[in-house]
Specification:
Structural class: alpha/beta
Helix content: 40-55%
Number of strands: 9
Number of helices: 9
Pfam family, one: Thymidylate_kin
Bound molecules: thymidine-5'-phosphate
EC number: 2.7.4.9
Largest sheet: 5 strands, parallel
Family: Belongs to the thymidylate kinase family.
Organism: Quillaja saponaria
Protein name: Thymidylate kinase
Length: about 210
C-alpha cells in the first residue's frame, strides 16, 4: 500500500532539544493543513512504559537486558497503531525510536547485534534526524541529571554509539544553534521529505 505522508524521528543525546523541536514541527505541519501527531518513546502511558519510567527515575532496578527488551516491547505495542495512522495519512513526528534503544543499551556494554535483534520488523521511517549537541552543552541545560542516563560519561558512550549507527541517509542538525535556527532547518528537511514522498512510498520494516 502506498504511503503519501513522510514520517520521521528525531534522535540525539539527552537534553538536545528534541522534544521542543518535535512539538514545533507538529504545530508547523498542522498549520500547513497536514494531519500530524507527536509521538514519544518511551511512551510512559502504557503499563510497559510505566515500568520503564520507574527504572529511568531510579525508583526500580532492572537487569540491562530486561530494560532493553521493555523499551523494545514499548515500540512493538504501538506498531499497529503507528501503521494505521500512517496509512490514514497522518505524519508522525517521533521523539526517539529504536536507534535510542541500541545507542543507550549498548553504552552499557551489551552487544550491538543483540540490541538490534528484537527491533527487527518495526516500521522504518522515511527519515532520521539527529540533533547534534556537545556533551558539555547538553549538561548545561535545565533538568540535566534528573534521570538515570543523564551522566556525562554515559552520554559520551551513547554519542559514540550514535556515530556507529549513523548512516548516510540521516540528516544531522547542529542543536547548539539558537532554537529558532534549529527549527528553521528542521522545517526545510521536512518539506524536502514531503516532496520526495509525493508519489507515495511503501512502508518498510527495519533492519530488512
Ligand atoms: P526521554 O528523555 O527522551 O524521554 O528518554 C528517556 C531516556 O530513555 C533517555 O535517557 C533515553 C532512554 N532510552 C533508551 O535507553 N532506550 C530506548 O529505546 C529509548 C526510546 C530511550
Amino acid at each position: 500500500m502506498a504511503l503519501e505522508v513522510p514520517w520521521l524521528f528525531l534522535e540525539g543525546l539527552d537534553r538536545c532539544g528534541k522534544t521542543s523541536q518535535c512539538r514545533r514541527l507538529v504545530s508547523y505541519l498542522e498549520g500547513q493543513g497536514q494531519s500530524a501527531e507527536l509521538w514519544r518513546f518511551p511512551d510512559r502511558s502504557t503499563s510497559v512504559g510505566k515500568m520503564i519510567s520507574s527504572y529511568l527515575l531510579n525508583t526500580s532496578q532492572l537487569d540491562d537486558r530486561t530494560i532493553h527488551l521493555l523499551f523494545s516491547a514499548n515500540c512493538w505495542e504501538k506498531r499497529s497503531l503507528m501503521e494505521t495512522k500512517l496509512k490514514s495519512g497522518t505524519t508522525l513526528i517521533v521523539d526517539r525510536y529504536y536507534y535510542s534503544g541500541v545507542a543507550f543499551s549498548s553504552a552499557k556494554g551489551l552487544d550491538f547485534e543483540w540490541c538490534k535483534a528484537p527491533e527487527m520488523g518495526l516500521l522504518a521511517p522515511d527519515l532520521v534526524v539527529f540533533l547534534d549537541i556537545s556533551l558539555e552543552k547538553a549538561a548545561e541545560r535545565g533538568g540535566y541529571g534528573g534521570e538515570r542516563y543523564e551522566q556525562l560519561e554515559f552520554q559520551r558512550k551513547v554519542a559514540q554509539n550514535y556515530k556507529v549507527l549513523h548512516d548516510a541517509s540521516w540528516k544531522v542538525v547542529d542543536a547548539c544553534q539558537h532554537i529558532e535556527d534549529v527549527e528553521k532547518q528542521l522545517r526545510e528537511i521536512v518539506l524536502e521529505s514531503v516532496m520526495s514522498c509525493q508519489n507515495g512510498k511503501p512502508l518498510s520494516n527495519l533492519w530488512s
